[in-house]
Every structure is written in structure tokens, then in C-alpha cells.
## 1
Amino acid sequence: SEMVDNVEILAIKNMQVQSNILKLVTKIKNSNNIRIKMSEGKFTFYLRIDKDKSEPLSKDELLGTDARPREIILEASEDLMKESGRELQEVEFRIDMGKEPEKLRSLERIVNAVGHPVGSNPIFYIDGRFYLGVESDKGWSSARSRINWVFRPALQRNVLLEASLDLPFPSEFKRDIPEKGEAWDDLKFGLGKYDLKKDAKKKLREYAEILKTDFPDATITIAGYTCELGTEKYNMKLSENRAKAVKNFWVNECGISESLVNVKWYGESKFNAQKGREWNRRVEFICQECRR
């Protein structure tokens, strides 16, 4: 339904593993103009690593399920903004990851995703089935409903893994953060284009919320690139326009301080032929102080 479509998970604030339970604190936005209730829910979580999000989910990507009997009340984002100055609400999920060896595989995927979010390209899938309640003068009325959330976990510093001592992690899941900062995402553009599409704006808003909440003083570098088609002069200007389009949106639409944003552009000078032209038509975000 349209009401369900107006409920989005925009970020992960906190992640903690204790025994076979993954505690996941999410930030949810209810864009409806009324508060709603989710009750008698079953939320099944999947984590995909370095695969296209359009491919069918496999059993190996299953993390587990939160089927605790409870009610989740989601206030309207407009009401939250008026009361607290924030439009996102925190909701905790407790995901039962099962027993060995399923738990170990799940923990390996989590460590991979948290330790190297760019290289592993983690994507969370959540299949939620519940009764959706709407409040009126006569009380709550509800109907069976379902929601599918698909999102990339954004950089967060409040991530804590407390695995049992008998669950060692393979060395390939222990990644180092680069000394000069971490490029944590990018946007792709069409040939000769530098306008921001709807999906790009949504992603930028999500990251802006996280930056303002968890890294308010962090400096962000925005770097623009192009493929090799066209003249060097044209591509240099195109990469500048792409980078500045992202900066202007963050500053003018999302409230990021202009003093915290650095902009660079490289044209085709860093073209990577092995990764293809589409990959090169991008803007990267680099946060030098977004450390966990």
C-alpha cells in the first residue's frame, strides 16, 4: 500500500553481536502524515556482499529473523521534526542468527560489510510481515501488510562486534582503513550528464543525515571523474560540474556546512579502462574523519 511505501529505513546507527543475536538499531522515516503501528511482525534479514542487488536472494545470504511479539509505533516525520528537530526515529531489531555453522557465516559477512563497506558493497534486505495499524478517534484499526526494504548501510561509528571467543574470524575479513581517509561511496552519471536523479538525491540525503548526526565536524572531499570520450577540456569541465552538483545539493538542500566540503575534479586524467566507461562517470565521497 502507499502508506507502507512511505516508511523507509535510511541508516544503521548501531550494530552489536552478542552470542547468536545481532542487535541492529536502525533509523526509520515515516513520511505519512499520521503515526502508524506495526504489530505481530516477523522481519527476516538478508545481507548481500559484492553482488548485484537485482539477483535473487540465496539461503547463504540469510542473517536471521526478528519475530518477537511487540508493537512498533512510528511517529510521523513532520511531527518528530517539530518536536525534536529530527525526522528519523530509532528502532531496534534483535535478529536470531541460529546456531553453528550458520552463525559463523553470518558473523563473517557482518565483519566484511562493516570493515570494508566500499570494497564489499554490502546491501541489506529486510522482508517484513506484520499488521499495519492506523489510529483514529475510535482507536486502532489494522490490516495484514508486508514491506520490503533494500538499502546499503551507510558509514557509522557506533558499530560494536562482541562475538563469542570460540568464533574466530578468517584473516580476509580483517580490513585496514586507509591512513588518508576512506572513500565510502560514489554516484554514477550518464554520458555527458551532471544532473542528480531521484535515487541520487535520496542517497545524498541519507548520508547528509548521518554526517550531521554522527560526524558533524568531519570534512568531506567530493571528487568528480569522467570517461575518456570527448576532449580533455570538455571532460575537465564535466567532472567539475558533477562534483559541484553534489556539493550544492548537500549545502543548499541538506544543510551541510560549506566550510566542511572540499571539491576536486580530475576529468579523464584518472580514467580506468579495465573498469569500463560507466564506472568512470562518477563522483566519489571521501570522509577523512569518519572513523569508527
Note: The CA atoms of residues 34 and 230 lie 51 Å apart.
## 2
Amino acid sequence: MIRKNFIKSLLLVFAVAIGLPSFASSADKLKLLLVDGQNNHAWKETSPVLVTILEDSGRFDVTVSTSPASPPRAPRKPKKGDDEAMKKFAADIKAWELQSKKIKEQSAGPVSYTHLTLPTKRIV
């Protein structure tokens, strides 16, 4: 499902890049914000490719914004409540809290943009 949505977004970007008039001057370039960093796909590999394609078309001025890493998921409480399992769970919780705190301190705040937004300016 996520892969289908990503492929649809990628095809939409290509369609827009190809469909725009090629006579646009550099002053007429559309500003495009590409937000990456999430969404279970190879964004580290695909973002530079998208930027190159869009900027080489001469129609876009692309800015990339990478969303901060999200905190890891909390460990699940063990189903069996023996002492050894509970000790491991307590240690996992402490490690998770430290890791989450570190990530929150590094980020400026919660950001969760996961969709490509095309310019609102009339293109055709």
C-alpha cells in the first residue's frame, strides 16, 4: 500500500515535470519543497534522484527538508511475569527512555509531513 502511494507520487512528479511548458525562464521557476525522512521507503536514495530530475527540467527550484527521526517504539511488557523477564523489561524501558530523550533533544519539535505537496500556482 505504502509502495503504491509512493509510486503514484513519483509518477505525479514526473508527469508535472514533463507537462510544464519548457519556455519558462529562471525567474518563473516554481518553488518545490520535498519533505523526506519517513514513510518506509528508500528516501535516502530516491530524494537526490527526484531533485536532479526536477532541477534538470529547468522548471523547479527544489528545497529538501528532512524530517527528524521519530523516537523508537516502547518495548512491550512481557506476557510471562517472572522476575527475569520483568528485569529485562525494566532495562529495556530505561534504554528506550534515554534514546527517546536524546532524539527529542536533537529535534526542534514534532514534524510529521509524509506527503508530497505540489505548488498551488496554476501550471497550465
Note: The chain has a mean pLDDT of 75.
## 3
Amino acid sequence: FRRRLPPEELERWRRDLGLERSYLLFMSNPRATQSSRKNLDTVIRAYARARQLAAFDAPLVCVGERGSSEFKVRQRAAQLGVADHVRLLGFVAQEALPALYQNATLFLYPTLYEGFGLPVVEAMASGVAVITSNTSALNEIAKDYAHTVDPLDVEGMAQAIAHCMADPEHRNGLAKLGLRRSEAYRWSRAARKTLDTYVSAIQSRRAGPHPNAAAAGLDGTGAADLTMHGEGRQP
């Protein structure tokens, strides 16, 4: 996501996906549009309201498995008068995602709950301004580096969208902040931290068992609990 695609490749993907030159992007995981925590209904309501607050024609592009919720989503968009401006793109191949992010004008991810929020980091690394929730892990990632909103506040979300779409300088500033923030989530940095942990464990083992090893339930290597409780975990 960090590698900037050449203009001709971005244009090719834009044409292949049938997208406008400017669009707002909402990303969900497969089948996530069926889950209320992804908050798509609120996003559509806020998008419709934002179009009343600021003059912009960019459509809202929603990526993710459509599932049984598609009818309700289209019905909501029609009720709000934005049916022609909401695109349900459905499933998108992994190789198309970098271009999808980099071509976007604004990324929306004001979900109700996230264990981590990888799409926010991906969007930031792609150089896109982000609007996301001021709750859960998303606030930890995005506070001071994106426009954070109450995910249940339609008017507040709409104002954030309108501000970003009407003020390119503000939008570009958020994009730059997001790029800076995404540096903290490089896999190489995570790998270095993991390596440091293992080196520390090895050094502790060479230093001999801890005086309180028996009480701590260690086997004298200083690493028993680490392997039991940390297996399979990756940052």
C-alpha cells in the first residue's frame, strides 16, 4: 500500500472498476455489510447529509461482500435521494486494493467496534485522508492523525465529510498526518520488536533461571509462559 502506483496503472484500475475520478471509499471485510458494527447505514445517512452541506458530486463507493443486506442499503440510499451516488462494488480482488485506496479522495471507516482497524492503516499508508471513529482501537490508531467522529452522530459525521470535501487543504493535511502515523505500523518495525523479544528471552536463559522461577511456574529457561501464552500472535 505504501508503494505509489504509476498514474497509468491507477487509471487502468479506475477504468476497470468503473469508478469516477473522485470518490469517497467505505471498506468492509467480506460479509461485513451484514453486521451492524460496520455502520454502513449511518455512513449513507451522513453522506447524504454532507451533500446538502457542501457542493460535491463524488459518489460513495462501498467495498465488501454484498450479501443479504444489499436490498436494505439500496432502499436507504433511495429514501435519502442518493441512490445514483452510492456504488456497491461488492468483493474486490486483493491486487486491486492499493489502486482503490490511492484513487480515493476520502476514506470513511466510522465503524462501531474494531479489534484493530487494519483498513485505516492501509488507507493512511496509501496517502488518503481518513474519517474514522473516536472509539475502540480506531481512536488509538487515528487520534490526532485523522478526522475522528462519534460513529452514532450522523450530523457530526456529515459535517466532517463536508469539511474534508470542501477544503482540499484540510484534506491534504490529514493525508500527510496519516502517512506519518502509518510508519508506526510497518511490518518491518513489528518484526524488529518481535526479534528483540526473542533476543531478550535468549539472554535471560543464558543468564540462568530466575530466583523466583519455581514460584512463577517457569521451567528454568525463562520462556515457558511466553510460548504458552504468546503462540500464534503477530502484531
Note: The two ends are 18 Å apart (CA to CA).
## 4
Amino acid sequence: MAKSGQAHKTCDFQVNVSGFPIRRSAAVRLTGLVRNATLDDSWPWDVQMQVENGKVAVFHYVVRDADAAETAPPVDSSRDRGEPLAIMVGRGGLIAGVESALRGKAAGERFDVRVAPEDGYGVRDEAAVQRVPKKFFAAPDRLRPGQMTTLSTRDGDRPVTVLKVGMSVVDVDVNHPLAGKTLAFEIEMVDVRDPTPDELSHGHAHGADGHAGH
């Protein structure tokens, strides 16, 4: 209870008292439970920030091809890199299926999500083959059919798969390597926080603590 002379706190979020979900206000009036009570910092609040637009979500993930054999290795894992992924939600830095699943989650939660191609890396376009001059590749003489590499474009580096290597050109599949695949994610929430001023200015998260360099 508030001590004499303390300012009353105003609370506008959902809590649970004696098993009943209620909405607290500065003066709590619940017949048979609490009458005219004021709350101070000693009240056992357990309210965690949840993922929503503008928040930074920090999480570990393991992603697998949902249609691959159970013994197949993961497609990607943040744990293999030793640090979680940090994303500013609502800024387009994450595939739609995962971003949607993150919303409303809080630190400590673990969950699985299955992402269809339409909400992942897109439906595969079998006609998406291009013949590209070798000069657009970092090490063209080392390219081999079936190899994944990056192609330099005006919009930045784009992942491609090498189909054929010629004397002066390279045939590539410009579909994302995961296009057309249904993906199974295992996610563990590490933190949900407000972005730093620098992150807001730059429009993306700067690592788990908000202070990672570029």
C-alpha cells in the first residue's frame, strides 16, 4: 500500500488479482477483494514489454526446410553464430510470416511457426534465369554450377544460384535460395525493448543491446 504522502500511481494495463483479470486504476474498487487501495512500487507487478511496431525484438531462431528429412541440418541458426537476431519491427527487415508471429510475444517465450512461401521468400519463378557478365561477380573464375553466390546490383547484393559459367557470362537463377520452400522456425525470445535514438535515426536495430557498430 502507498505510504502517507506518496503520489498515487495510475495504471492502465491488464493485471491479475486473485485469479481475476482486471484493469487497475489509481483507486481500485473491487467488492470483496480490494477497496479504495493505492499501489506503490512494492506491488508485485509482472508486466513485460511485448512485440509491436517500433519495438526492437531480440530472438534466437533455428529454421529448417519443413519438407526436408528430420535428420537434415538446419537451413540457418542464430545459435551457430553465437548471438541472437535483433530486428526493429515494422521496418521490413524480416519476412512477413515470422514478423507476424512475433507480435504480442515477450522475453522468455518459446514458440514454433510454419511459414508458407507466400509469407517467406516468395513463390519460385521457374523463368527467373538471367545471363550476367562476369564483371558483376566478386570472384567469377571460382564460380561453379550449383554454387550459391551474390550478384552486385544497384539495390545491393542479391543471392543467386549459379547454373552455368561461360567465357564472359554466367547464367544464374535469381530466385532467392529459399523461394518456394515452406519453412519451420523454432524461436526463443531474448528481449523486447524500445529502440535507441540512433536506431530510430537509422531505421534499424544495432544488435541485441542497441550499440553494435555498423
Note: The first helix runs from residue 78 to 81.
